[in-house]
Amino acid sequence: MKKSFLLIMIMSFSVFAQSEISVNTSKIYSQRDPQISRDLAGNFIVVWDSENPTTKSDIFYQLFNSSQEIIGSEIRVNTITSNEQERPSAAMNSGGDFIIAWASHSGDMNSIFDIKARLYKNNNPVGDEFLVNTTTQFSQTKPQVAINANGEFVIVWESWTENSDRDVYMQMFDANGNKVGLE
Predict the structure, then answer these.
(1) Rounded CA gap, 45 and 65, in Å?
(2) Which of 34, 44, 76, 122 has the most beta carbons within 10 angstroms of its beta carbon?
(3) What residue ranges in the chain does DSSP mark as E strands?
(4) What is the pLDDT along the chain (183 residues), one digit of tens a residue?
(5) What pTM was computed for the model?
(6) Residue 90: CA atoms inside 13 Å, Cβ hemisphere, count?
(7) Closest CA to 50 of 80, 73, 75, 72
């Protein structure tokens, strides 16, 4: 089944996009869970997870300028391609730097997910993907991210507990992607 994202952007509260924009290049398998963030100049990033038969799913992003024109091509975020990657979240700061976080299946038979992230400056990755959560027992899912003008960022997520309840956790990071404080 062919699926694609069509994006109708509101660049500000008073200006609407002129037309739909196809975000993803791949038109086979499911393209799902899109998220969007923009900088103060109106440039924006769209992230999503893309199903495929080889790796189950990967996280991709596409950048756009303030005129809604595609910048470069879509890029896979995750470097580990085994198992499932899902539910991406992105945040872009005023300078155009951005952070992407997602839930990554560990390969454990108990369906354990961890939160992974990757930091970008000037559209270049700062290292490889990294583990966000310290607690690795049970599943960590549904990450959300925020980044400030200095590049410091925070990631929050939902964590399953032993009795199937859920708690919300948070981890702060400096502009280089180093953890600040405890989870």
Answers:
(1) 9
(2) 44
(3) 6-7, 21-22, 31-38, 44-52, 56-64, 70-76, 85-92, 98-105, 113-121, 124-125, 130-131, 140-147, 153-160, 166-173, 179-180
(4) 445 554 544 444 334 456 778 888 877 888 889 999 999 999 999 999 998 877 689 999 999 999 989 999 999 999 988 888 999 999 999 999 999 999 999 776 666 899 999 999 999 999 999 999 998 888 899 999 999 999 999 999 999 877 778 899 999 999 999 999 988
(5) 0.87
(6) 24
(7) 75
pLDDT at 15: 46
Distance CA(154)–CA(99), nearest Å, equals 9
Q: Which residues contact 124 (CB under 8 A, 6 or more apart)?
A: none
Q: What is the pLDDT of residue 111?
A: 64
CATH architecture of 6-180: 6 Propeller (2.120)
Q: Which helix (H) or strand (E) holds 109?
A: none
β-sheet bridge partners, residue 89? 101
132's CB contacts (< 8 A; 6+ apart) are 101, 114, 115, 116, 117, 140, 143, 155, 157, 171
Residues 132 and 115: their CA atoms lie apart, in Å, by 5
Contact 77, 60 (CB under 8 A): yes
